[in-house]
Amino acid sequence: MIDRFDFWATIAAIADTATAALARAGVEVVRLDSDGRTALAVPVEARAEALAALAGDPAASG
Predict the structure, then answer these.
(1) DSSP assignment letter at 19
(2) Domain hosting residue 36, numbered range
(3) Is residue 47 part of a domain?
(4) How many CB atoms lie within 10 A of CB 14?
(5) In 25-62, where does DSSP find H-type helix?
(6) Residue 10: left (phi > 0), alpha (psi -120 to 50), or beta?
(7) 19-61, pLDDT tens digit by residue?
(8) CA–CA separation, 58 vs 50, rounded Å?
(9) Positive or negative, the Cα torsion across 26, 60, 55, 44?
(10) What is the structure's pLDDT at 60?
(11) Is residue 33 in some structural domain?
């Protein structure tokens, strides 16, 4: 049972995993952290490559 759900901590954990997966795939990523909130910025020309890297990275799903 989950007593308390910390949305932004969950997003940060997902961002950590995604950042590592993208780095392994050689995709440039910029993390934007502000007030406990996290976002990832990927250059427009690398978006398709980034999505493919995340979809194909077993570490990103486990």
Answers:
(1) H
(2) 28-62
(3) yes
(4) 13
(5) 47-56, 58-61
(6) alpha
(7) 898 888 888 888 888 876 778 888 888 888 888 888 886 665 5
(8) 14
(9) negative
(10) 54
(11) yes
